[in-house]
Every structure is written in structure tokens, then in C-alpha cells.
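User: Round two. Same drill as before: sequence, then structure, for each protein.

Assistant: Same drill it is. First protein:
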Amino acid sequence: MEIYDREKAVVAAFYDKQTGSYQYVIADKATRSAAIIDPVFDFDDKAAATCTSNADAIAQYVESERLKVEWILDTHPHADHFSAAPYLAEKSGAPRAIGEKVVGVQKLWKDIYCLPDLPDDGSQWDRLFAAGDTFRVGELEARVLFSPGHTLASITYVFDDVAFVHDTLMMPDSGTSRADFPGGDARELYHSIREILDLPGNTALFVGHDYGKDGREPMCMATVAQHRAENIHVKDGIDEQQFVKTRTERDATLPLPGLMLAALQVNIRGGHLPEPEHDGRSFLKVPLNYFKPVAEAA
């Protein structure tokens, strides 16, 4: 766990080595109210077994710091891990939220998975945020930016001088996240990033993933000013055409995330596992031959 002390808030960052994912707790210094952002529900793909190690570490931190959880927030339906939002909501009693465009992701992926009975109205969450919406965590006011490109539903949460961008940006030496998933779009991603980089230069941008490029330790935060000066994909001087070319060429070489086909059918359900069948066990579905191997895709 890493702690970042900002002017009005404290951010605790939790790293999941298996998926390279960062999860966050932001706490208002004045009231000790908090929000949990993008928590991970552990999944062992070899055994098809779930557990709650990551979520329990977050819950233990919340308890030890005597924080009151007011929101559990996802930035988008994740393709590389299961969301632990339902588990932590049950433990804390806090409402869960995501961006309103999640309904488009649900419609898209329920067809891919052949899940005709899956509700695709976002009713699995307590609130669906639209661009420009605001809400409070204690005395902190948060606002929502619509940040499509990585997915068609991605959003950014901005709390004063802190923003949670998840897969919209990586650390500056790694650039940006891919835009080739169903519903993704490199051109939209560029414009989403430019809106984020129009925030004040001292705004701390917390990313959703890092893999320790070239052997360095994983990192999760860089400021707007650092991204504008150093981000290899979107630093000042790189225009839309250059970005789209770089991002598209890079995406053509990437295999699908290892947990994508398992994770998305859970996350379009709001993080809930599929309903148990007659024997009491839940099952995941894999759409055969829908996606091409990376060699064919390239």
C-alpha cells in the first residue's frame, strides 16, 4: 500500500500484482468520509476460483483508519479483473456507481456472450453518472468526466487536485491504454485524454494499471504537468493523427488480456457472478471463434 497526501484528501493505493491493477481509497481529511475506487475481486484462472484477498485488505485499511465509506466507484467494466464492488458494498453499506454509458457495454457484450436475459439498463448499480455530474465524499466535491476510447463507457473521477483515470492513461513512460476492444476508439481516446490534460498542472492523475516498465517498481501517480511533458503517446506536440497511428499500430500487436473473457461477463453484471445452476455452482461462458488470434488480427 502507498499513501499520497494531497491538500484536502489522502489517497491509499493498493496494488494487485497478478493483474497489475491499482485500487484506491480516497478519504476526506476534514470528515474521514471515503470512496473506494476500482476494487479487485481475486480470480485464479487456472482453478477458476475466486477469493477476496484484495478487497479484504481494503476493508481492513478502512477499518483501521476509521473511515466511513460513502461510495464504491468503478470507472468502467474492467476486462482484466473482476470488480469487488458488490462484496465491499455488502460489507460497508455504501452505494455503487459507474458511468451511464455502461448500458452500451452491456448491450454489446450480452450479445457476444449470448445472454438474452441479462438486464442491460444499468440496474445492477445504485447510480449511473453522466458527464458533468457531481457528488460528495464528506466535504470533497467530485465531478465526472466522460472519457471514452478505451471503452465506450469509461469515466474519470475528479476530486479537487486528484483524478482517477484508470485505463485512459498509463504512467508517462508507458503512454496510454489500448483502444481496440469492442466499443473502443483511438480517436475518442485522444480527445478524452486532452480533456484530462486540460486540468490544472498539479492535478495528481492516478492510473489503473502499471507493469513496472523495464524492471522499475510499479507506479500509479503522475501529475498533469508530468504527462504533458513526458507521456510518450500524448505529450505536448503529439497531435491526433500521430496518436491514432501509434495507438492503432500498437494495438494490432497485442493479445487479448488473459482474464478478459472471464471478467467482462461478471462486470457487465455489476461484479456479480453468474446465477448458480441446479447444482449450486456458477459457470462462465467462452464465446468460441468470436475473436481472432493476434497474428490473424494483425
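Second protein:
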Amino acid sequence: MPTAIPQTNPRAEYLACQAEIDAAVHRVMERGQYILGEEVSFFEKEFAAYLGAQHAVGVASGTDALHLALRAGGVGLGDEVITVSHTAVATVAAIVQAGAHPKLVDVDASTYTLDPAALAGAVTPRTKAIVPVHLYGLPADMAAIMAFAKERGLLVIEDCAQAHGAECRLSQTSGWKKAGTFGDAAAFSFYPTKNLGAFGDGGGVVTNDAALADKVRLLREYGWQERYVSAVHGWNSRLDEIQAAILRVKLRQLDQWNAKRQKIADIYDRCLAGSAVVQPVRAADRAHVFHQYVVCVKNRDQIRRALADAGIGTGIHYPVPVHRQPAYRALGKGVNLPTTETRCAEILSLPMHPHLEPDTAELVAAGLLDAARAG
């Protein structure tokens, strides 16, 4: 049967603020400036202010954001960058694009984010940086990661592609800060299904380092310090005006939409409590914004088929660890990632978006429980 309950629904976000978005797009079209105009400039300032950061630089995608942040931080040929295999392949692709070698480590068994205990064994004299991935909307353990990086003198570039508005704190006495403001820089994706999504590709680099921000601005447009004259080798990676205008509208809704995601997660938590379904953890030092609500179940593929037959859409984020993918199998040689391997066979992303109705979430949970019992 057709999917009655989609796993995600970016169109609903358009309908929720259609008049504002239509007006924003019309404003750009009327103005007639479509590349790196005032909409991008305003969005960069507003997004930086929202996060509590000094600088934001709009680029063409989240992958480009990570690539250019690494380049601007001095990562290049021959360097090693520690990250996880349980992530979107874009994380590793960006490291390779920067000319560096990805060093893959395992994830924590409960949070599915980078396990800080794995860092010491991964460092070599060539290690230049760490890229922690804030997966599914939950920040990685930045207290432990930042302490390790500071001790070893390593660059930290946060992969915040799924963590817009997520927060964490470094200690019980420290204040809460937005994900993306702990490392030397952070990379955000504005892909349409993200918590803050455009209606096409888009990304941003966030940092408190003015020199690094200036370098990203240089790299995103051919290395131009003056038009048509390249001071350094650069790329074409620009956030366009229409996407920036849309993002400005949606940024004003982000906290409200994240709160709705958290309420949906609460419903799932309540309905699935006491079952064999393993639910996402809620870490005391980290505020989850539930880009995805990911459970672990035995007989995952059978359960997923049963849900599909019931009209409930699900996803798998991600079915094949990066080191098992054909393009990156060389990265898996001599690597032992047991938690990553186990989790990839069990994870299932339930429907999650801010316009999912509470009673629909209850139907999803009931369907999952029925499928799990039958499996």
C-alpha cells in the first residue's frame, strides 16, 4: 500500500510558512541579485547570532562546508583526520576531498556518536584533526573530545549537519552552548530534510576564528580577494540568495520546530517504554533535537517491511558503514569497529518531523510494537 505516514516531510514546512517564504523568494527575484547578495549576508549574521558564534559563512552544501573548514584550518595532503564510520558518507568524502586520510574509530554503544575512548589509539604523528559527528541531533561528547584535542594540539571541526539548535555543556557548572561553538569550526548542512533545511542544497561554516572565516570566504569563490583575480586556489561553493532568503524565514521557526520534534520523541519514548525496542538515549549534558528518532530492533529488515505494508515510512541512517562501502574499503583494513557493525544491522529511523501529529506518532509506535512482536 502507498506510504500514508512518510518518514520525513519537508513540504509541510513550506506549507507552514508559505506566505513568508513566497514573499522572501519574490523579494530576491525582484531585487535581481542572485549570488552572494544581502540575503546571504543577513542570513550569515543571523545564523551566527542564533548559535552564539562570531562568524558564519554560507557555502553550497554541508559537504563543502566540512571540506572548506578543513582546508581553512590547514588540513591537507598527508594529514590524518579522525572521525567515525557510522555517519553519512559525506563526512568521509569531505576529508578525502581536502587531501587528508580519514582515520575511522568506533562509536559509543548508547549514543552512536564518536567514542572518546577510541581517540588515543587512533592518533599518529600525522594526525591533524578530529571531526566529531553530532548524529541524529545528539551532540557528541564534546567535553571529552575537546579535552583530548587540547592536550594533543589537534584541530576540531564539528560535523553539525544533523544538529541545528542542539546544545551541550562541558561540565555541570558550565553553561549550555549550541553545537557548533565548541571546536575550531563547525560545518552545517541545509539539505531540505534537516532541522533547518533549504529547498535545495546549502551549507555553512561557523567559527569564532576571524582568520579561519576569512579563509573560507576566500576558498568558496575561486580564492578571489578581488573579482576575477585568484590569490589562492579556490572552489565555486556559494550559498545562493534564494536559499538564504528561505533559511532566514525558517531560522525564526527553528526552536519551535525543534521543541515539536522533542515532543514527538517523548511520545515515542512513552509508547515504547518497557518493550524490546531500544530507544535513543537522553544524555544529561546534551540536548537532543531529534533530527532522527532512531531505534534498534532485532529482525530490522523484516520489521521495516511490515511497517511499509502498514503504510508507515521508515529510514536507515545508515545501512552500510563507510569502511564497508566499495569506494572506501581500504579504510577498513586493520580496523575493528564492533559497535558500528552491530548498530548498522539494527537501526531504524521512525517518522520524525515537526509537523507529525501526536496521534500519528502513537500509531507509528503501535505499529512498530506489533511488527516487533510478530518478528
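The mean pLDDT is 97.

User: Perfect.
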